[in-house]
Hints:
The chain is α+β, with helices and mostly antiparallel strands. It has helices spanning about 25-35, 45-50, 55-70, 85-95, 120-130, 170-180, 180-195, 200-215, 235-255; strands at about 40, 75, 80, 110-115, 135-140, 140-145, 160-165.
Amino acid sequence: xxxxxxxxxxxxxxxxxxxxxxxxxxxxxxxxLLGTHPxxxxxxxxxxxxxxxxxxxxxxxxxxxRMVAAGDLRRTDAGYRLSDRLVRRQQRQDEAVRPRTRAWxxxxxxxxxxxxxxxxxxxxxxxxxLAALRLAELREGVWLRPANLxxxxxxxxxxxxxxxxxxPAGPAGDLAASLWPLDAWAGTARALLARTGxxxxxxxxxxxxxxxxxxxxxxxxxxxGLLPAGxxxxxxxxxxxxxxxxxxxxxxxxxxxx
Length: 258
């Protein structure tokens, strides 16, 4: 499968980890199910859908078998459903597109890691969890962000860290700019937006919007007053929401043609 979506001549260059790349059969199946609510599709319908993304029947059957064996999918009476682990990923993806926020009063969430004696794998896993909660590391073991998100922190966090509310003595905008590469994030978001109109083939569009999702997961979702002018986060979310509706329409159209 080739991904050859052209970019406008003056579009900024995307970083390597966000350049749309050819999607494997597994990635196509996961992208379709992650965008379907509930995340389950009949086998025949799934076959018709992936055919539109240049995935053949034998390739699909082999991919589905491997995904069931790996615990990515569950075989059901109706077809295939995401595993519980990937349902949680779907929830994170949905939250990336529609993060719930509240008016910000100047408070910051702070998480201070207090556990000691943990191995490298445990430390890396905790860092991944904290970053997924859109916290940023001020210094080793000290994570914080403006308290404008409506989302619970996992109870297990209390076993390894202390949580508190704080207010910086200096300008909050300066602190936010030191914690997140805001200009770089915005530049990449604009580069992705510039490509959304040029990806015509279904496989190209799926690959492009997979990159959009990855980038949205890294959006710090800061209060408007802490963001640079012209912040493209909402525009990128709107573009992805439009694509989700487009993809849902394809699923329904193919289901109607069964």
